[in-house]
Write a structure and sequence with these properties.
Chain lengths: 441, 297
């Protein structure tokens, strides 16, 4: 029998785990406090532990290696959201009172939480940073000055995937059949209009296969995919939906090397549970798989000092850990850019917003940081809060991800005007007067 | 016709997987009259314990036995620390206790074994049966067929256990009235321990099969969403009802998704079984095989 004491210890451990609080310190004269809204428990916890492990590892790395940014020490507090919008809002409200900068910037790492915080962060003057997710029409900074869907958006990603398929089909998609298997939520539905526009332009046939959340049952949809004799499948899944999709594809004999997932469907946490069914599966990524000079140095400096965030060191440089490193890198570069303009001191939310609109993380800078190839170069402006729009395609070989493409840019000419249209409609509904970007310094 | 058959067979086999989860609910309900909110968490905890033990280098068969042992311990501990004080309390108190148990198990599992998503290999390929595919162009998974067989054996064993053993009859007596059962000498505590241990075993089997299909992660808890309409259709107290309910839910949701889904934007298999179950409640509130509840006034 499990001893009572162990049960109590387990319960205490669970309670501590759900609180997941790291050293909490408010901004002082020489500290920059960062609110961290994380999800480490619940159905999406396995991905969250990797992402937030990487994010916090990078912040620790900067503190340990450089003594902070420009002599300003980074501090943070973590709050568990379980990926739920209500808890995300509660965490945001709690942490924003901890520092004059209201937490410097917010990375919700969740589209539902991003939407829930859109107006709150605007009112509180806190930049909302959504690296590869969130409200996509916020790429237009005239209408969304405080929101930054950085690096890539869902429509840019899906059109880049179509571009990869076109490469594989010798640039001729006429008569080809592409099945879009997606989580039946805003995340999955958003792409439909862009893919339909691409189908019209390139002449391929698009079939839609929504999967009811959470996606643990997909038999009927994959039988439809088989029946339609699709040439390619674009998978827009999350969590349990991804390994289930790979298994279901194997069950109907659909080749996994013709199945391309979004970046939310392209980590070890998605493929390992699917076992052999995942072999050959492809996925988009905005952060590179595997070790880099940066991840090696993080391991040496942070884990060497016994301050690493991942209990299991084998997860260092996993896809989700690398995503976390990139989120940390963007955070630090934004603070550094703000300090260059406003002085080496703790910066305010408004100053960080300016910096996020003037980010210039080019290839040379990435090389300096040991992150060459880890992420695409990012250059933002008032008109472009995305700053890149590029992804690569990676393939799972049964044990690890390897890259099978160079950077591919989404169909900017198609996507950005539609995003602008959507942003203008939102502004009209909310009575927002767009900024004149030509007057922004 | 071939496609219709394929969808129908796929749906029936999925339904068997739902039945497996529903069985755990039925067992607890039969013995205590309580809806066990923690059944999904038990499925997750059982599967996680199994992969955790396997990860320590323990052979497969022994890992199954040890995971079953963990579920027996859990059953005994549940009776001792959760249920014993609640004898003769209103069913809602017992139900609330199972909610607490669910949250506890969802935290205890990852605390003991970590929260990484893991694979379960049962040695049965989840691929179409070649002969059916070649001769009839029918895609039927051998894994699903094996799961149906396992479920059939479990149901037969449980039905025999409930109908033809002393403990089975005692379980039914306890479900009817705790106090009356105690007054005729039925050891309520032992009965509850046994039934929670058996429900733990069913959770382990369900966890292994669902884990092999979707991976072992906290999402396993959500498989109960598929079991609830099965219970409404089949009745909360009937083991065969869980099977028939599962077959109805599995087949109709798949056929509805394929043939009706397009008219309403698709993705309907999440809610369709609930609509079906609600309609069914209007006609037969106790479910297909449920016991009619009669109160003397």
């Amino acid at each position: 029998m499990l001893p009572t004491r162990k049960c109590l210890a387990a319960m205490a451990g669970f309670l501590l785990g759900t609180c997941a609080v790291l050293p909490a310190q408010a901004d002082s004269a020489n500290e920059q406090f960062i609110s961290v809204l994380s999800f480490r428990v619940g159905p999406y916890g396995p991905a969250g532990t990797g992402i937030f492990g990487g994010f916090l590892d990078y912040l620790s790395y900067v503190d340990l290696k450089d003594g902070g940014v420009g002599g300003v020490k980074l501090t943070w507090e973590e709050c568990e959201t379980e990926y739920q919008a209500a808890k995300g809002v509660e965490c945001y409200e709690r942490l924003k009172t901890k520092s004059p900068s209201h937490g410097t910037m917010i990375h919700p790492v969740s589209t539902p939480i991003s939407y829930a915080l859109l107006e709150k962060t605007l009112a509180d003057k806190v930049p909302l940073v959504m690296t590869g997710y969130g409200r996509t029409d916020a790429v237009d900074g005239r209408y969304f000055p405080w929101a930054f869907p950085l690096v890539t958006t869902y429509p840019m990603q899906s059109t880049a995937i179509v571009s990869f398929i076109a490469q594989k089909e010798k640039r001729d998609l006429k008569g080809k059949k592409i099945a879009y298997v997606y989580l039946d939520s805003a995340y999955g539905k958003e792409n439909i209009r862009y893919l339909q526009a691409e189908a019209k332009t390139f002449g391929f046939e698009l079939s839609l296969h929504p999967i009811a959340p959470p996606g643990n049952e997909q038999g009927a949809q994959w039988q439809e995919v088989r029946q339609s004799r699709a040439d390619w499948v674009i998978l827009w899944g999350f969590g349990v939906m991804n390994p289930t999709a790979m298994k279901a594809a194997a069950k109907v004999g659909f080749p996994r090397d013709h199945m391309i997932g979004s970046w939310w469907a392209g980590s070890e946490e998605d493929t390992v549970p699917a076992g052999d069914a995942a072999k050959g599966y492809l996925a988009a990524t905005m952060t590179m798989p595997g070790k880099s000079a940066l991840s090696n140095d993080v391991e040496k400096v942070v884990y060497g000092a016994g301050k690493g965030n991942l209990p299991d060191k084998t997860r260092i440089a996993s896809v989700n850990h690398n995503r976390g490193l990139v989120i940390g890198l963007i955070t630090v570069e934004a603070i550094r850019t703000a300090q260059k303009k406003f002085g080496k001191r703790p910066v305010t939310g408004e100053e960080v917003r300016w910096a996020l609109e003037h980010l210039d993380i080019g290839e040379a800078r990435l090389k300096e940081l040991g992150a060459a190839g880890l992420m695409p170069a990012v250059k933002t402006s008032c008109l472009d809060h995305e700053g890149s729009g590029k992804i690569k395609i990676q393939q799972w070989d049964g044990t690890r991800w390897t890259l099978v493409s160079d950077w591919i840019e989404g169909n900017r000419a198609l996507v950005h005007p539609l995003l602008e249209e959507s942003a203008a409609a939102y502004a009209k509904e909310k009575g927002i007067t767009p900024r004149d970007c030509s007057k922004e310094s | 016709m071939q496609f219709f058959l394929e969808v129908l067979i796929g749906g029936l086999l999925s339904g068997v997987m739902y039945s497996l989860v529903a069985l755990g609910f039925v067992l607890i309900y039969k013995a205590s009259g309580v809806f066990n909110f923690a059944q999904g968490a038990m499925v997750y905890f059982a599967a996680l314990s199994f992969v955790g033990i396997l990860g320590l280098g323990v052979p497969f068969g022994l890992a199954v036995l040890l995971a079953f042992g963990a579920m027996v311990v859990l059953g005994v501990a549940t009776e001792r620390f959760v249920l014993r004080k609640l004898v003769n309390q209103p069913p809602i108190s017992l139900f609330m206790a199972t909610i607490g148990l669910a949250f506890f198990l969802e935290g205890l599992g990852p605390f003991l074994w970590g929260n990484e998503t893991r694979e379960v290999k049962l040695g049965i390929a989840d691929e179409p049966i070649a002969i059916l595919l070649e001769r009839y162009n029918l895609s039927v998974s051998q894994f699903d067929l094996m799961a149906a067989l396992v479920c059939g054996v479990l149901v037969a064993a449980l039905a025999l256990f409930f109908q033809h053993t002393r403990i089975g009859r005692a379980l039914r007596a306890v479900a009817d009235d705790h106090q009356a059962a105690l007054s005729v000498g039925i050891p309520l505590q032992t009965i509850w321990m046994i039934v929670w241990a058996v429900a733990g075993f069913v959770a382990l089997v369900a966890g292994l099969l669902w884990g092999a299909r979707n991976g072992v992660s906290a999402s396993l808890v959500l498989v109960v969403l598929k079991a609830l309409p099965v219970l409404i259709l089949g009745g909360f107290t009937s083991v065969p009802g869980a099977i028939v309910g599962g077959l109805i839910v599995g087949s109709t949701e798949k056929l509805a998704e394929v043939y009706l889904g397009h008219y309403v934007g698709g993705g309907i298999e999440g809610w369709f079984p609930y609509v079906l179950a609600l309609l069914f409640l209007l006609v037969r509130p106790e479910g297909l095989f449920g016991e009619k509840h009669i109160d003397r006034v």
